């Protein structure tokens, strides 16, 4: 599988990475079978995917633990990415809080290393900005942790351009992890150009808009979990109906090209200028195989023009 250099680092990643939010299970997603999750991760590695992205808050440590078990004995095949800054007082949505203080980050890195069963994390990312902690303080501590050999590179997630500029004053930022898909393109205005100009890799999460771009759902579908609350992102009531109409048009176009919409959406994401990799979730080895098929698609200029007309 093709590999792409991540920012200014010496780290090379596959154009499709495995996102493991769902593998964490509750409270964000339904309960997952551990053996199936491990098989899913191994299937991704077998297919040539080398970037595995996780976070402590995914299942309150559960995702990291499962990833650690799955990559045991195969650590040298993996670009391992995790995060810091989202912590919990209790294992519930209400128990979550931001903490990027130096002492908290120091504690988090050791917890992640233990759960992942490794002595070094390739890409350590600030999960979300912390309103209480200046990003400069966090970056100083992350730089010290890097000097200790516990991490190879520092990245950020869900950062604005201004926040990235502040972080860059202290240490190199190798990558940004933003939400990006055919339905949610806000980063095209300022963020993507900034990353291109500053050679910051972009790991696009939610390239399938949390499932909408699989084409499996219509306006009458009853979602459970956080999607069912209809108060976040493209699932907000005012955003959902227009999004579903766009999805149907995209689905019709994909069918006219004999391409699964899922594969079309992934291919579109990884083909955008400045995007290094799309992080795609999977619940099974078969889903991994379906995701990887996006790499075999060949889209023409007229395809991209037609897609742009639909989503603009």
Describe this structure in words.
The protein has 312 residues and is α/β, with parallel strands linked by helices. The chain has one domain (4-209, 270-297): TIM Barrel. It has eleven helices and twelve strands. The strands form three sheets. It has an eight-stranded parallel β-barrel with strand order 3-4-5-8-9-10-11-12, surrounded by five helices. The radius of gyration is 19 Å and the shape is globular. The mean pLDDT is 95.
Distance between the termini: 31 Å
* CATH fold call: TIM Barrel
What would CATH call the homologous superfamily? NADP-dependent oxidoreductase domain
Give the neighbour order of strands across the main sheet: 3-4-5-8-9-10-11-12
The beta-strand count equals 12
Spans of at least 5 consecutive residues whose pLDDT stays below 50 are: none
Percent range for helical residues?
25-40%
Specify the CATH class: Alpha Beta
The proportion of residues in beta strands is 15-25%
Principal-axes shape call: globular
* Total count of helical runs of at least 4 residues: 11
The domain tally reads: 1
Radius of gyration: 19 Å
Largest sheet: 8 strands, parallel, barrel
Q: Order of helices and strands, N to C?
A: EEEHEHEEEHEHEHEHEHHHEHH
In round numbers, the mean pLDDT is: 95
What's the architecture in CATH terms? Alpha-Beta Barrel
Keywords: Oxidoreductase
GO molecular function: oxidoreductase activity
GO cellular component, one term: cytosol
Domain NADP-dependent oxidoreductase: 15-311
